[in-house]
Design goal:
This protein has 301 residues and is an alpha/beta fold. It contains 9 helices and 9 strands.
Length: 301
């Protein structure tokens, strides 16, 4: 039996649907999905099996114009994930078309080493009419020579099987990179922290979600099969702490309940989750926080 295995990098603008597509491909929730942009910080790898092929998806942060150190580190991580992958899939939102951001990404693709297989996936196709979709496809293929073009809806699953089948056939021959039952190479501590951060992002509004991070500080296995998880939410200002806690602690209680429920479903066992909030005004400038998120602090310079 000839097996294939390799890395597939999903790149695109923030909110293009990369996390949703990763989760759809893998068949489990390994990447944080919210309606807010720039929520994926680390290069989360989801592992999917298609026939004799093992596809390792690198769900990169959205590519955008960086302003702060964290932004620059996220963009560097995205391009790093693309440069290291066997195949790159550029995800474009059908209803937004060729934006300034997409044009910048196309320019970046031109600078990657020659011979890299790059596919185009036009997502959210249910939001546009067929003639507009065909015109967009033609326009993008005139701008860049894609190996293949797919029209998909990551949310509804349309066209995803065709994309996965093509990727599986294009990967290099070789042994599988991960055990068959593994769906992500992120430590469980980081997946747990991401789940809590997602609940905070959904619950809170405006700029605050980008000014906070969550770290799993302690994970204790219990004899009854359950686990106690202690997490710290770092915010950069005193005022933010009050917002995260909410009136009479209602917000953090709701976040804790939602995160715990999702963790229990994901892990298939009882979880005792304890959240605390700490003000660290300069956490965005601390190298340790970046390594916890799977980012390189130096890339933010």
């Amino acid at each position: 039996m000839t097996t294939r295995a390799g890395f597939v990098a999903l790149i695109g603008e923030p909110n293009a649907g990369k996390s949703t597509l990763t989760n759809r491909m893998v068949g489990a929730k390994v990447s944080i999905v919210t309606h807010k942009v720039q929520t994926t910080r680390a290069r989360i790898r989801g592992v999917a099996i298609e026939g004799d092929s093992q596809l390792v998806f690198v769900d990169t942060p959205g590519l955008f114009q960086p302003r702060r150190r964290l932004d620059r580190a996220m963009v560097a991580a995205a391009w790093g994930g693309a440069a290291d992958a066997d195949i790159i899939v550029l995800l474009i939102e059908a209803h937004r078309g060729v934006t300034e951001g997409v044009e910048r990404i196309l320019e970046g693709l031109e600078e990657l080493p020659q011979g890299r297989r790059i596919a185009l996936a036009i997502n959210k196709i249910d939001r546009v009419e067929a003639p507009d979709l065909l015109a967009l496809t033609q326009d993008l293929n005139d701008r860049f020579e894609f190996a293949q073009t797919f029209m998909i809806s990551a949310e509804k699953g349309h066209g995803v099987d065709d994309l996965r089948g093509w990727l599986a056939a294009e990967l290099p021959e070789g042994p599988w990179l991960y055990p068959e039952d593994q769906i992500a190479d992120l430590p469980l501590r980081m997946i747990a922290a991401e789940m809590t951060r997602e609940k905070l992002t959904l619950r809170l509004h405006q700029e605050l979600p980008y000014q906070l991070t969550v770290e799993t500080e302690n994970w204790e296995e219990r004899k009854d099969g359950s686990a106690r998880i202690d997490q710290m939410i770092y915010v950069s200002r005193d005022g933010h702490k009050g917002i995260v806690l909410g009136k009479k602690g209602e917000t953090i209680k709701a976040v804790s309940q939602a995160a715990r429920a999702e963790l229990e479903e994901f892990l298939g066992r009882r979880i005792h989750l304890f959240l605390q909030v700490k003000v660290r005004s300069n956490w965005l400038e601390e190298a340790e926080r970046y390594s916890e998120m799977g980012l390189d602090f130096r890339d933010g310079n």
